Structure formats: structure tokens, C-alpha cells
């Protein structure tokens, strides 16, 4: 476990311990304080020594087995996403730490798959760089083709591109979800040069990102409703889904499906017609 992952694990455990309700663990208040367990209480419930747990929360260089981290996670009432994050920080994640952070070239057969999708779709690498997209996505977010490759990162664009921000009426919720999902996927890569550089760059460019990142919220990706306000055709409403190609699992496809009962399909067709007329 590298130093940055140890520090992150320590702070994450401290934050979650401080947020626990004592009554839910059958413990009385400490004076007027009803929130937060003591380290010795967590250690007792998890069946580990107080000294060892203290060292873990201090970020010391100790080995934590999967079984012990899972036991601590149960005491801290971690969600499935938070438990997976803790395991990844402890070196027990499913993604190899040495895997590529980004995809330099979109595999042609996967670009062809994106192109065959009728609705907006794009592919993201583990560092959330956008590796490829289809024409429908470019119709939705025309700026994507103009962005320098170094800035073609989904988080970077969400927090720094005013055009994209204007298109998202629920930007506050969307941005928070993205940061929480990115953190959930970052576990084993935390502390790598590329990951640190990206987070530092984002924090330097956006105080909002820095504030949300410091909250340490962790969420797994979930299919959900996405709303865009397009400058030419107005409101577009989609269901957002994600697929992982089995032959290149480091790439994730994000696919948008027009929501039934909305004029989204028709408005996408209008956008496509406008684009074809401009090209002609």
C-alpha cells in the first residue's frame, strides 16, 4: 500500500467512524455527543487490537487483510461501494494497480460499435479521459471535437467548461455523482503519478471540485435519468447506461437512451438533420 493510499484509508476510516450513531451500536452518548465511536469501540467490535486499529487510522505502514478490512467495514456500516473502496485502498481491489490509466488510441472495432449506436454515446478510460464518441454525442455536445486531447477528460469538462455546465440543469447533483463515482473507481490507482496530477489539476482549477473531493463520498455507478438543455433544440431527456466491452475492460461505454414519453428522439433527429445540412 503506497503512502497516499494509506493516508486516504486513514482519513476515510476516521470520517466514517465520526459519522456513526452511537445508539445504533448499543452505546450510550458521551456527554451530550450522540455521534461518533471511539477507536477502542471500533476495535472491540471488529475484534482487532486497539493499537493496530489506531495505527491503521494513523496511516502507518501496516498490512491489513481483506478479512479484517471487511470486519471493520461492517462495524462502520459501510455501503457496498464504500467497502469496495476500502478494500481497493488496502490493495485488495479487482483492478490491477499497474494497469493503464488511459487509452491513447480507441480500438477501431469499438469505435465502429459506438458509430453504430443511434443515440449519443462515448467511451471513457480509467482516468475518465474520453477516448471516443459517436456523431450523435457530438451533436449533443459539439464542443467535444474542439477540446484539446489533454483536456478531454469528463471530470475536467464538467468542472471547467461553461458550455457544458449551462447544458446541465442539475449540475450540482451531476457533478457530485461524478466525483463520487470517480473516487469509487480510483482506489488502486490512488497515489499514482497520473491520478495525483489529475486531482491536483482539477482542485487548482475548480474550488467546487476541491470541496466535493474533500467530502470523500463514494458511489458505484448506477443507471439514471440525465437531462440536457441543448442550445438549439431545448430539453433532451435520457436514461444513462454503462457497458464494459469484455475484450477491453479498461474502457467503459456510456450510452444514452431517449426517455419514452419525451420528444427527445425527434429533437435528436432534428439535430442530425441540421448537422447534415451544415456539412452539405
CATH fold name of the largest domain: Beta-Lactamase
Largest sheet: 5 strands, antiparallel
Helix and strand pattern: HHHHHHEEHHHHHHEEEH
If classified by CATH, what would the architecture of the largest domain be?
2-Layer Sandwich
Numbering strands along the chain, what is their spatial order in the largest sheet?
2-1-5-4-3
Number of domains: 2
In terms of structural class, how would the helical and strand content be classed? alpha+beta
Q: Round the mean pLDDT to the nearest integer and report it.
A: 91
Dominant shape: elongated
Kindly state the percentage of residues in helix: 40-55%
Strand fraction equals 5-15%
* Count of DSSP-assigned helices: 13
Computed CA radius of gyration, to the nearest angstrom: 22 Å
- Count of beta strands: 5
CATH domain class of the largest domain: Alpha Beta
Uncertain segments of ≥5 residues (pLDDT<50)? none
Termini, distance in Å? Answer: 56 Å
In brief:
InterPro entries: Lambda_DNA-bd_dom_sf (IPR010982), MLTR_LBD (IPR041413). With 280 residues, the chain is an alpha+beta fold.
Explain this structure.
- The structure is a single chain.
- The chain has two domains: 3-89, lambda repressor-like DNA-binding domains (434 Repressor (Amino-terminal Domain)); 108-279, Beta-Lactamase (2-Layer Sandwich), CATH 3.30.450.180.
- It contains 13 helices and five strands.
- It has helices at residues 3-18, 39-46, 50-57, 66-75, 80-89, 108-116, 135-140, 154-160, 162-167, 171-186, 193-205, 207-214, 264-279, and strands at residues 121-124, 130-133, 224-230, 234-243, 252-258.
- Helix 2 packs across helix 3 (50-57), helix 2 packs across helix 4 (66-75) and helix 4 (66-75) packs antiparallel against helix 5.
- The longest helix has 16 residues, at 3-18.
- It is elongated.
- It starts with a helix and ends with a helix.
- The model has no long low-confidence stretch (mean pLDDT 91).
